[in-house]
Structures are given as structure tokens and as C-alpha cells.
């Protein structure tokens, strides 16, 4: 569809109570749309049907965002993102878009952004497009997108989707039981994320002192025969520190007590919950809105309602399984704290031996001072873990 206008800096306001939709085939060609979307986009309703979704694609949108969302759709899942759309007269309008797979294609449900993430995401898009205009390729753009999301505190795009979707549907009607469940799950996820952050910082701290036991052994060899106990202590310290690092690593992402897989499971639950709420709300509006296209409002509403009634995707943990995994995460964290206390005891033994050699320790006291400083930092790092474990105990 040719355009002879220039892009306008003027924004088209979107009614915050409006939930719009389009139904497209798998190639993104629009099969039907509600009149509200046609009016907002500034196109003749008849011309919307049969047009590709690119008809509303704004040049300010980073292609990495579309590449990531289309990959999710091709994999059979849903996708969600903030999208700047181009109106027929050159103006723009922002929406939060959730696209779900249905028989023969996709339903794209849109509403006005309202969550706190929107402004930060819009700024990230501007940075992405600036790099893209300088000739940055898609692979680099996808890496840059991941970096932008990491700066916002998200491990990946699905983690971002989970929080964005929950905030963008928070105003929709719901039952008290569902709100209570959602609040508990959100609280568990926040504590798990904080626990993972504390573990990573502790691991980084331990890595900074990995040469200290080696330095102790070198000094001990120069103190022979009186350096024997120091040599044994340094070996014990090195072995215990290695065990602690292994515990913090959690055996990769497959160990039952690993934190990241549990957070990912919670994100999937949050994504499913938000999508079904939004689709049910959209279905109730479809029958009241005028549609244009090849499909009736009743048919579109039935597709939306069917998706809204879907159970969580296969592989998603049940509430009982999730509780068991969270319990294992707690046990892993408790093991880390026990190992760190054991490492502290070994350090104290080294300090005792160092004081016995004082005046002739060839620099051992300086190494022990470094170790004491390190342990002070580690104690500061463990304090949040202990606090979080107490919160888990209170919540369970």
C-alpha cells in the first residue's frame, strides 16, 4: 500500500479502556479486524482486510523486536511486546500487543500501554534503532536487545514478557482467589530473583580470592618445617572453597535446587495467566464491536474464549511441584551458608597459626589480613540470603 505522506511526530491517543484485535493468517495477512483498530490506524476498513500487518509498521520499530516475536510464534507459542504503529495519515500510536496462535493463524490483541516498563522500553527502542540505522546487522541487534533487557533486570525476552503482560492486564476484572494466587506467585518470584542475585554476587566474591590459598602454600613452603600446618590449612581452604563454588553453580541449570529454572517456570505461569485473562476480556468486547473482514464476531470471540480456557502449557509445574522445587532451592541456599561457615572456621585456624609465627611469617599475616577482608565482604553478601530464607519460611 503506497504512502505519499511523511511521518508525523503527532501521536494518536488510544482509549485506555479499549481492547482491539486483528485476526491474521500464518503469514501475517489480516483476515478480519474490529472497527476500532481500523479507525485508529486511519485506514479505510475495507482496505485493512487482505493487507499485511506491515501496513501499520512504524519505521521507529527495531526489527530485532519483530524477529524475536516471530520466532516465538513460529515455535508455536505466544508473543507480546510494546509496538509503535503507523497510522494512515503518518501519525503514530503505541499499543501493547499480545499475539496468540489459533487455528489457521494468529489473533493479535492490542490495548493502550499503561505499565511502568513502557517508558523504559520506548527509550531502549530508540537506542536499538539508532544502532540499526548505523548498519548494525540482525544478529548484533538481537544481542543488543538482550543487553537492553538485561539492563532492565530481565534474564531473557520471556522474562520481560511475563512482567510486562502482568502489568498491562492488572486492571482487568478478576476473582479474589486469582488475585491472591497471583500475589503469592509474584512474591515468590521476587524472592527467588533476589536469592539468585545474592548467589551470583557471592560467587563473584569467592572467585576474587581464589589465589589466596596458593599464596599461603608458597609462604608455607618457605617456612618449613614450621610451615606444615599452614600448608595443610591452605589445602583444606582451597578444597572447601572449590566445593562452595560448585554449590553456588548449582550443577548448571539441571539441578533440582537451581534457581533460574524455577524462575522460568514462574514466568511461564505468569505469561499464561495474563494471556488468558486478556483473551477472555477481548472476547467479551468482540461481540459488542463492529467487525470488518471474512470472519464473524462470534467466530473470533469463540477463538479467543477457547484460548482463554486453555490450561497451562505442557511441562509447566503444578502448584505442588513448584512448591517442592522452591523447597529444594531453599535447601541449596542453606547448604551454601553452611559451607561458608565451615570456610570461616578454616580461616580462623589459619589466623591462629599465623599469630604463632608472627615476626617470622614471611608475609603470611598480610595474606591472612586479605582473607579476613574477603570474609567480611562475604558475610555482608550472605546476610541478604539469610533474610530471604527467613521470608520463604514465613511465606510457606
Features of the shown structure:
396 residues; single chain; elongated; disordered N terminus; 13 helices
Give me the secondary-structure topology:
Layout: E1 20-25, E2 30-34, H1 35-41, H2 45-48, H3 63-74, E3 79-86, E4 92-102, E5 105-111, H4 117-133, H5 138-151, H6 157-168, H7 176-208, H8 212-222, H9 228-249, H10 259-286, E6 291-293, H11 297-308, H12 319-356, H13 364-395
Antiparallel strand pairs: 1-2, 1-5, 2-6, 3-4, 4-5
Helix pairs in contact: 3-5, 4-5, 6-10, 7-9, 7-10, 7-13, 8-9, 8-13, 9-12, 10-11, 10-12, 12-13
Question: In summary, what is this structure?
Answer:
The chain has 396 residues and is of the alpha+beta class. It has helices at 35-41, 45-48, 63-74, 117-133, 138-151, 157-168, 176-208, 212-222, 228-249, 259-286, 297-308, 319-356, 364-395; strands at 20-25, 30-34, 79-86, 92-102, 105-111, 291-293.
Describe this structure in words.
This protein has helices at 35-41, 45-48, 63-74, 117-133, 138-151, 157-168, 176-208, 212-222, 228-249, 259-286, 297-308, 319-356, 364-395; strands at 20-25, 30-34, 79-86, 92-102, 105-111, 291-293. The chain is an alpha+beta fold and 396 residues long. It has a six-stranded antiparallel beta sheet with strand order 3-4-5-1-2-6, with helices on both faces. Strand 1 and strand 2 (30-34) form a beta hairpin. Helix 7 packs antiparallel against helix 9 (228-249), helix 9 runs antiparallel to helix 12 (319-356) and helix 12 (319-356) runs antiparallel to helix 13. The protein is elongated and about 95 Å long.
Amino acid at each position: 500500500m503506497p504512502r505519499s505522506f511523511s511521518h508525523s511526530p503527532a501521536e494518536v491517543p488510544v482509549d485506555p479502556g479499549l481492547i482491539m484485535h486483528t485476526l491474521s493468517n500464518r503469514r501475517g495477512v489480516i483476515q478480519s479486524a474490529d472497527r476500532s483498530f481500523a479507525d485508529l490506524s486511519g485506514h479505510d476498513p475495507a482496505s485493512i482486510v487482505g493487507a499485511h500487518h506491515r501496513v501499520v509498521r512504524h519505521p521507529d520499530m527495531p526489527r530485532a523486536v519483530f524477529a524475536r516475536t516471530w520466532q516465538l510464534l513460529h515455535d508455536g507459542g505466544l508473543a507480546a511486546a510494546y509496538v509503535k504503529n503507523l497510522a494512515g495519515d503518518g501519525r503514530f500510536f503505541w499499543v501493547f500487543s499480545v499475539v496468540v496462535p489459533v487455528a489457521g493463524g494468529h489473533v493479535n490483541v492490542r490495548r493502550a500501554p499503561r505499565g511502568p516498563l513502557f517508558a523504559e522500553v520506548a527509550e531502549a527502542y530508540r537506542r536499538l534503532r539508532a544502532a540499526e540505522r548505523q548498519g548494525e546487522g540482525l544478529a548484533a541487534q538481537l544481542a543488543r536487545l538482550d543487553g537492553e533487557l538485561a539492563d532492565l533486570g530481565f534474564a531473557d525476552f520471556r522474562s520481560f514478557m511475563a512482567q510486562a503482560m502482568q502489568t498491562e492486564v492488572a486492571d482487568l476484572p478478576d476473582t479474589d482467589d486469582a488475585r491472591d494466587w497471583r500475589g503469592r506467585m509474584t512474591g515468590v518470584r521476587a524472592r527467588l530473583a533476589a536469592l539468585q542475585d545474592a548467589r551470583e554476587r557471592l560467587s563473584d566474591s569467592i572467585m576474587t580470592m581464589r589465589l589466596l590459598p596458593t599464596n599461603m602454600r608458597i609462604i608455607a613452603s618457605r617456612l618449613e618445617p614450621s610451615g606444615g600446618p599452614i600448608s595443610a590449612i591452605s589445602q583444606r581452604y582451597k578444597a572447601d572453597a572449590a566445593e562452595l563454588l560448585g554449590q553456588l553453580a548449582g550443577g548448571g541449570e539441571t539441578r533440582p535446587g537451581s534457581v533460574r529454572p524455577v524462575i522460568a517456570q514462574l514466568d511461564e505461569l505468569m505469561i499464561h495467566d495474563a494471556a488468558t485473562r486478556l483473551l477472555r476480556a477481548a472476547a467479551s468486547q468482540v461481540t459488542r464491536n463492529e467487525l470488518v473482514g471474512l470472519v464473524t464476531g462470534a467466530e473470533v470471540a469463540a477463538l479467543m474464549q477457547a484460548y482463554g480456557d486453555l490450561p497451562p502449557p505442557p511441562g509447566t509445574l503444578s502448584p505442588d511441584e513448584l512448591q517442592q522445587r522452591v523447597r529444594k532451592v531453599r535447601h541449596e541456599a542453606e547448604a551454601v551458608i553452611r559451607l561458608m561457615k565451615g570456610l570461616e572456621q578454616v580461616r580462623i585456624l589459619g589466623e591462629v597459626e599465623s599469630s604463632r609465627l608472627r615476626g617470622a611469617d614471611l608475609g603470611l599475616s598480610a595474606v591472612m589480613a586479605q582473607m579476613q577482608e574477603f570474609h567480611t565482604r562475604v558475610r555482608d553478601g550472605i546476610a541478604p540470603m539469610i533474610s530471604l530464607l527467613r521470608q520463604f519460611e514465613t511465606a510457606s
